Amino acid sequence: MRRTCRRPRAYAGAGPPLYPCLSDAAARYVRMRALSCARPCFSFDPSMPTSTTAFAAFLFLVHCVGVLAAGHAVLTVRTSQGAIAWAISLITLPEFTLIPYLIFGRSTFAGYVDARRFHNARLREITLSDDWRRLRDHEAAVVAPQHACMQALPRLTGMPCLARNRVRLLVNGAETFEAIFAAIKDARRVLIVQFFIVHDDALGRRLAEALLERARAGVRIYFLFDRIGCHALPGHYVRQLEAGGVRVRPFSTHAGFVNRFQLNFRNHRKLVVVDGERAYVGGHNVGTEYLGEQPPLAPWRDTHIEIVGAAVMELQLTFAEDWYWAAREVPQLIVPKVRPDEDMACQVVASGPADPQETCSLFFVEAIQSARKRLWITTPYFIPDEAVFAALRLAVLRGVDVRILIPSRPDHHVVFHASTLYAYQAIRAGVKIYRYRPGFLHQKVVLIDDEAAAVGSANLDNRSFRLNFELMVVTADTRFANDVAQMLEADFAEATRIGRDEYERAPPLRRVVMHAAKLFAPIL
């Protein structure tokens, strides 16, 4: 619609003027203003400020990029619901959704995928020496039929299930870090240290001192930490290690221009390898809270394992891929010489957003589906996807004793409320959900019947399924499974089972909060 300004009646048409009192000069001025106002207010004016023109061009560009991003979302987002939601919002409101999509929306990031695709073949060719290949072929386990959970994992992970390992449970922080520091002290050749979080507190400084002492002794040390997880780590901590001869690299998924906004992917793995002979994997990061010394979450409940044997070489190879991405160099790896007599098969499950399929989610589905008598899971965050939730329901229908242990105290409130709602839904499906009372539960453990157990860094949530790089070790051994069962029985003894009617008794406001938190499940 063309807007025009109303002319004064004195000059709207022919006839005598309505205001004869105006002088000729005033009349000419009024006529000039009236004619100028008759022009369209929204017509193009060459004198329009350049800032307005630039802003309009910017908005046009944003909308064009939004359309392109919507097409990208349709092609890459793994669920139809997510693809539709992103596409509609990117087309209609790109000013508000383009940046969040760059941060949260993409399921993979360029660069790391390319590095794995084009460089991993070369990396494995370099790292897998003849001795390594012979050991790998010799110790590749023929998985027994009773270990049903191990059947698909070698093909899923691209790593063989290896025999002749010895695995020891390390319950809680004190036992875990005493074992790690003792192993570091005995290191003679190569040390691999990788953590998601490292704090510059008493425990973090103790780790730095231990690494510097070994570096002075001539040990080659590789120290890898996640850039986002260690955002609070001061620069002097890293510079001190580098000055002492430690090779330090941050793991960052946003290398390059395309991925500079990719902050949602994290390397959540925790791994220490000493001289290629002994490895430590689990849920502990480096900080005094993991020793259970920081209220209100204290005491902190977590689990690590110590591994000796052939599986250590697969753990080294997993680290080599991460280190190669961060440093563009292949770390020195050592073929394990220690061959335990135990006939214990271990399967390394390394997963991440660069995998061709959802390795972590499929691992949990496979573990749940293979259970026949008992399936016990402990996780700090319970936000399963549809496939995992369906597998849990089917396990209950098969008559499996399905128990899940979650915290009673939150460390992240949004995640806690979403986990609580999923727990209520699982209870209605017949799953037994328990809350750990003494402190914060952070361990990630899966027990399958009396045959197999898994310990590592993966939580039962979407972040571990699709956003984080995770590391689990599955052990097929009845004695170790019995040790895990005894540990979990002690945990369940200090837990309270959630009743079926707890959701109905919850205040309405709390229900609203839980359902609102669930909306963020894809990125939690």
List the helices and strands and how they pair.
Blueprint: H1 24-37, H2 50-76, H3 80-92, H4 94-105, H5 112-127, H6 130-139, H7 153-157, E1 165-171, H8 172-185, E2 190-195, H9 202-216, E3 220-226, H10 235-243, E4 247-251, E5 266-267, E6 271-274, E7 278-282, E8 300-301, E9 303-309, H11 311-327, E10 345-351, H12 359-370, E11 374-378, E12 382-383, H13 386-397, E13 401-407, H14 413-428, E14 432-436, E15 440-441, E16 445-448, E17 452-456, E18 460-461, H15 462-467, E19 468-476, H16 478-493, E20 495-497, H17 502-505, H18 508-518
Parallel strand pairs: 2-3, 3-4, 5-19, 8-15, 11-13, 12-18, 13-14
Antiparallel strand pairs: 1-9, 2-6, 6-7, 7-9, 10-19, 11-16, 14-20, 16-17, 17-19
Helix pairs in contact: 2-3, 2-4, 3-4, 5-11, 12-13, 14-18
Q: Any idea what the CATH superfamily of the largest domain is called?
A: Endonuclease Chain A
Rounded to the nearest angstrom, the distance between the terminal CA atoms is: 48 Å
CATH architecture descriptor of the largest domain: 2-Layer Sandwich
What's the gyration radius in Å? 31 Å
Question: Whole-number average pLDDT?
Answer: 85
Give the strand tally.
20
Class by alpha and beta content: alpha/beta
User: What's the main sheet like?
Assistant: 9 strands, mixed
CATH topology of the largest domain: Endonuclease, Chain A
Q: Supply the number of helical segments.
A: 18
What keywords describe this structure?
plasmid, disordered N terminus, 524 residues, 18 helices, nine-stranded mixed beta sheet, single chain, transmembrane helix, alpha/beta, Endonuclease, Chain A, PLipase_D/transphosphatidylase, 4 domains, phospholipid biosynthesis, globular, 44% helix, seven-stranded mixed beta sheet, transmembrane
